Structure formats: C-alpha cells, structure tokens
Amino acid sequence: MFGFGKPSVPAVVDDGRIRARFLVQHPGFRLDVDLDLPGRGVSALFGHSGSGKTSCLRCFAGLDRPQQGYLQIAGELWQDSARGFFLPAHQRAIGYVFQDANLFPHLSVRGNLQYGQRRIPTAQRKVALDQALELLGIGHLLERMPSALSGGERQRVGIARALVTSPRLLLMDEPLASLDLKRKQEVLPYLQRLHEELDVPVLYVSHAPDEVARLADHLVLLDEGQVRASGPLKELLLRADLPFASEDDAEAVIDGQVCGHDAAYGLLELQLPGSDARLRLPHTAVADGQAVRVKIKARDVSLGLNRAEGSSLLNLLPARVESWQVLDAQVLLTLCIGDQRLLARVTRYSFDQLGIHAGQAIWAQIKSVSLLTP
Amino acid sequence: MLKPLKHSLFALGLIFASGAIADEVKVAVAANFTAPIQALAPDFEKATGHKLVASFGATGQFYAQIKNGAPFDVFLSADDTTPAKLESEGDIVPGSRFTYAIGSLVLWSADAAYLDGTDAALKAGQFKHLSIANPKAAPYGLAATQVLEKLGLSEAVKGKLVEGQNITQAHQFVSTGNAELGFVALSQVYKDGQVTSGSAWIVPDALYDPIKQDAVILKQGASNPAATALVEYLKGPEAAKVIESFGYKL
Amino acid sequence: MPLSKNDLDAILLTLELASLTTVLLLIIGTPIALWLARTESWLKRPVGAVVALPLVLPPTVIGFYLLVSMGPNGFFGQLTQSLGLGTFTFTFTGLVIGSIFYSLPFVVQPLQNAFEAIGRGPLEAAATLRANPWDAFFSVVLPLARPGFVTAAILAFAHTIGEFGVVLMIGGNIPGKTQVVSVQIYNHVEAMEYAQAHWLAGGMVAFAFLVLLALYSGRSGKVRAW
Fold first, then answer.
1. Is residue C67 pLDDT above 80, yes or no?
2. Is A38 within a domain?
C-alpha cells in the first residue's frame, strides 16, 4: 500500500513497442482492450464519450487497477495480473496531463513544475526545465499562482509539468476539451511542437476529430469499451468499414513538404513524397522543407479521365485507382498519388459512365486543400 | 356565548375552593438524604395527596441557586449553618427551621473483606485512595477531616485523598472501586440495622462535630400548602421510623 | 488579584491539559479522519457515528463510563493494572484520556471535511509526479488541509479548557493533578467564595477570548491562492 521500493520486475522481450491488455468490469460499464502500439509518436485513443478512452488511459497510468491487466512499455513490464505484478502509479515513469490541468493550488507555477522534477534522480532528468518552458511558452508565468492563470495557460503549465519528469510515456486526457475555441487554437501549436521535438511516445485521448487529424500518427478507435480498429491514422481514415470514411465529411490526411511559395498569388506549394505531384493552396509562407500535413475531403475530389483544360481547379494530379466502395447512390474511391492515399466521392452514375476499373490511371481534381500543421 | 364560559369558570372556582387539586412541593434535598426521601415520598403522597418533586445535590450549590431565585419550596440541608444563613438573610418563612435528622459518618469500602468494623485499615494506611466529600461544600466532608485530625492521620493520608463534589460522588468513587475506602453518610450504605453491602466502620460520635441537618420552608413556598404538609410529615412518627432506619439519629 | 496557590495551579494544570490533549488529538485524529475521508468500506458510517458520540452524549455519561472502566473492576483498569500502571482515575493521565474521548469529534470532523474537500485530483496528480502516498500526504494533503488543522486545534484546545463534566466524574479534585479551573470555580461557588470564583472565571474568559482572537487572525492570512 505504501509502495516503498520497486518490486523486482520480470524481464520481457524489448521490441520497442507498447503492449497493453486491460479488462475492467463495473456494473454498467466494461472495458476490454488489447493494444499493440508503436513505441514512438502520438497514438490517439478516439471515440465518443463513454467509449472507455479515459478509463483506458487511467489504466495505463496505474491510477485505476483493472480486474485483469498487462502492460509493457518498450521492454519494461509495468503490470501483469497473471503474475500478480502491478507497478503503482507513482512508480511508473509517466507524465499525465489531466483534462482540467489539475495544478497544485498551493504551489506557484515554478513549484508545480519542480514538484515532479525533484522526485526523479538527477541522472534521469532528460527534459530540462528551460526546455519545457520554451516549448510551452510559459517562462514568464513562473512566479504566478495557478489561480492567476487563464485556462489555456494552466493547461500549458500542466503539460510542462508532466514533461519535466522526463517520462517514458506521456498520457494526455483530452487536454483541450475544457478550453474554448480561442484557447484551443492557442495550445494546439504547442502540442504539435511537442510532437515534432520530443522523442517521448504520447497517448492522446480525444473525441475531437480535428485534434486527432492534426496530431496523431496512430489511431485507436474505441466503441463501448472495445477496440474497433487500431492502425496508422492515415490508413484508418480511408477504411470503408470504419465510420470515418462513410461520413459525409470523410477525408484523407496527406503528408508533404513545402517546396515553394508564390508571394504574388499567395500560394503555398507542396511536394508529395514518392511522386512529382505538387499541391498548391492559398496560404501564407512557410519555410521551405518544412514537413506539413494536409487534409482533403472526399467530396472535394472529383475524377476525370483526361486532364481538364480551362478549369478553375488549382490541383489536377495524376493518380491511380486503388479500391472503391459503393454507398447507395454514391461511390467512395481510394486513390494513390505516389505513396499517399486520397479519398474521392462520385455518384454511382458517374462511376459507371466513366467505366472505372482497378489500377486505372485517372486524374484527381482537387477542389480544396486544408493545411493541418503547422 | 358567555353563558357556557360563566358555567366553566364557576365550576373551576368550586374545584379550587374545595382544594381537591393536589399541590406540588419542590424540595431541594442534600445528597446524603437521597435514599430516605425516596423512601418517604410515596407515603407522604398517599397520606396528604400532595406530590413531592425532589432535586438532589450539594448544599453549597443549592444555597447559590436559592439566592439566585431557584424555584424550591423546601430545602433539606446537609448542615445547620446554611439554613441559618438563609434565615438571617430573610429568605425563609420565619420560624420554619427545624432539625430533621442528625447524620452519622461511616468509613465504608465496597470490598466486603476490607474493613473489619474498626479503624485498623485506616490507620494501617495500605490504600492508594481515600474518598471524602469536598469539606468546603459538604458537612460530611468536613466531618471526615475532623475525624482524620482527631486520629492524627491528616498528614499520613495527604497524598491519597480524593474529593467528590458531594457525598454522592464520594460514595461513587468507593462503590466503583476507584477508592479502596471512603467517608460517606451512613444513610447511603445502611438499612434496617445493618450495612447493606461491602464493609464498614461506624465512626464514633466523639470524633466529629454532630452533623445537624436542618430544613426550612423557603419564601417561595410560603403559600404552598404542600410545603407545610411536608414539614409536618417529616416531624411525624412515620417519618421518624423511616429516617432512623437509614442510620440517622433524631 | 486574590488568586490562591490552588487557583494558579488550576490555571496551569488546565493549560497543560488542553495543550497536551490538542497535540495528542491531532496525532490520533489525523489517520482516523484520513480513513473516514477516503474509505468506501461499509464501516465508514458506524465508525463515523462512534466518533461523533461525544457530541451528543452528556459529558457526565462519558465521565461515568470512564470512571467505571478505568477503575480496578473495569476493562481498561484491569488492562492498565496488568501492565503495572495502576489505575488512571484521579490522575492527570486519566484526565488526558478522558479529554481525548471528549474532544475527539472536534478534531476528526474538521479534518475529515478538509481532506474530503481536497478530493482525488491533487492526489492523482501527485502520484503521476512520482510521489508515493506518504510523500503526497506531506507535500500536498497537509498544506491544502492546513485551515482544517487550525480549526481542529482551536476547537480541541478551547473545548478541553471548558471541560467540566468528565473531569468532575473522574478527577477527584486533587490540587495540582486533577483540579482544573472549571472544577475550581465550581468549588469556590459551593464554598460561597464568590470573589475568587469571579476572578478565576473572568480571567479564563478573557484568556480564551484572546487566544481565539489571535488564532483566528492568524488563519485569514494563509493559503489564499489557487
């Protein structure tokens, strides 16, 4: 109960991945998940409220103890109910960002930040306080008390506080949920920077598709306490059997690189890996070579057998038809451009008219592209 | 509309006039007289038709309450000095003061084998606690100190004395075994010629000033027929028998 | 100031009793309050009710049961005797024990409320920041519960100063050992020594008022921030 001293940890195979199995049974609620997640990048736990996302996250943290559980982080075993082994929360190298920041009211921002840092041996401190301050832009808030901070500032302090313990796993429970739109937009860029600059794997709980699209590399779709799908974000968005693709605003996420900016017309030019194709979109300048992520809605992509002439469409890209799914009067197609994938939606009539077949070379007519990051 | 009211008033008046409604006498009773008054009350109520309501406590405490307007009709004190004081201060019905009992002091232990009817155990001093009533507030406590003085034991028992706030508490300390022995009122442990439990040494009269217990009718009870009735009863032969059976003298 | 040696001893004794009781109660009451605040066991209600008993029971009832149980025939008295400690009636130790029972809810309840008000949040945050439960208690719970501790201490101290019924039952009125101020005032009144009673009583009222005033002023300046 007091958790003095670390129990001896059984050895496991280290392949750098995160493996977890949790079974939680309460009257009226059940969580039964089996996850195999990459040991790097951001994995999002996505689902409606009540789907078990937060419950799952708390199991990772050791804040809740499931009836049965197994957790292995990159070769380190944190929990195995079959062997009666359970590492309590305070002995897990995690950082946890709560939905409402949960700062200590009796400590200043500095006190809050140092609280965790003080409790890890100097040798293990990989994230410096300065680094976290800079990353979250809170250097000027150090001497303030939490009650004197805005919601967005509190959340950023909460994130910094979790980082400064140099965790092996960063857990974030809907960190933007309690913020209004303005604050969300204020904090989101910081989260993106985290993603780019730190090497810590992140588990990010959210029910907001936008956030997930911007931040996640890996997506776990939870529904009623069960895993409906788990895989790379971009792939899952395309899958016809998942709710994403069948929704009206189904979209694909594409990674590219900035290769130029037309100042006169205010157009940003992106290069897509694995092809010569260029995407152009109205946007302010971004540094050349900067990695970016864009989303393209299925309904903004139409098809042409030939390259259209005299069209207002900015982006006409050669693509290949990979697969499609018929949905009533419409057809949802998956197209390849280089090694990126794109969704297109056309009427079944047009589909038949054009005589589309698998592997066909076709022109993707993209009406609108949105920049997700940076 | 007034007619029924007049009838009721008339009827009530008749009842009052005939004295058919019994009166209540509120009595402040010294703690040591608790058992006797409880034994006397039913007889009194049967004989006179009046009701007796008794409060028990320390004499000093009652004095303070009476001086501050406590609603007692009759006061049965544990000593004679307090009623005398009330008399000189004009708080009683003149001429109502009389001695209703003369108290006896007894050294008592709850342990039936501890005392042997003499003062041997007291002199031997093998006990840890000797219980007495607070001498400043209870005449039995004062008498106890007189006895100890006369026996030359005052110094010897100095560290072992425990004081109860009144004679009842002094008795309580002994009856729960917390004090091996103590000076209590004979009436608390005596009935019909013998000590009812434990063991005792009845202290010879010569060793302490007589504990004359006086009663008075307070000014408040001047017009209360039940008060006068009680005083008359206490002076009578039935009461005397009961009082003596508890070890008092008259 | 016509205060006799007994009077001054009584004052000192009372202050000793109140201070010692307060300290002991804070030590004993804290784990009880913590358990009551956190537990989900079915025992929570009965234990809470037992703790609250001294609030409703007349002090003389508490005193009476202490008198019987601490005496040589009682459970507690037999225990202490078998340990070679004798019986605790008529002793200062006995008064301390009586005062602990008497003032227990006045310490446990404010502490329990303070702990409950903290809620789970700060404790979970502390755990995710590598603080083990002991550490979290001293670094998070105590500072956040400080107003509760101050209240508990004030109440225990003041309540013990005013204690009368319990002392009356088990004290034995021994000067320097069990003759506390409340009993001494009672003695003076019984012996019709009204002047002394006034001095003692009035003095205690003034003292208590000043102590409470100082403690309450000290409270308002603390822990404002969130």
1. yes
2. yes
Instruction: Evaluate whether residue A12 is within a structural domain.
Output: no
From chain B, pick out residues whose CB is under 8 angstroms from the CB of C63: none
Q: How far apart are the two ends of chain C, measured CA to CA in Å? A: 50
| Domain region containing A298 | 251-373
Q: In whole angstroms, give the CA distance from residue A372 to residue A374.
A: 6
Stated pTM of the model: 0.75
Cross-strand bridge partners of residue A294: A254, A371
In a domain, A6, yes or no: no
Instruction: Assess contact for A52 and A222: CB atoms under 8 A.
Output: yes
**pLDDT tens-digit map of A259-277:** 988 889 888 899 888 888 8
Are B165 and C186 in contact (CB < 8 Å)? yes
> Is C34 within a domain?
yes
pLDDT tens-place string over residues B149-195:
999 999 999 889 999 988 888 999 999 999 999 999 988 898 888 88
Q: Which CATH number is C106's domain given?
A: 1.10.3720.10
Tally of domains within chain C: 1
**The CATH fold of domain B23-102+211-245:** D-Maltodextrin-Binding Protein; domain 2 (3.40.190)
> What does DSSP assign to residue A12?
-
The correct answer on CATH 3.40.190.10 for the domain covering B104-207 is yes
Contact C128 A61 (CB under 8 A): yes
Of the candidates C73, C89, C192, the beta carbon closest to that of B60 is on C192
CA angle, A139 as apex, A138 and A140 as ends, to 5°? 90
Assign C22 a pLDDT band (cuts: 50, 70, 90): very high
Q: CATH topology of B23-102+211-245 equal to that of B104-207?
A: yes
The predicted structure's pLDDT at residue C85 = 87
Chain segment C30-51, per-residue pLDDT in tens:
999 999 999 989 999 999 999 9
C215 within some domain: no
Q: What is the pLDDT of residue A1?
A: 43
CB A204, CB A127: distance < 8 Å: no
- Token look-up 């930040």 returns A113
* Interface probe, candidates B88, B166, B176, chain C, greatest C C-beta count within 10 A: B176
Contact C139 A105 (CB under 8 A): no
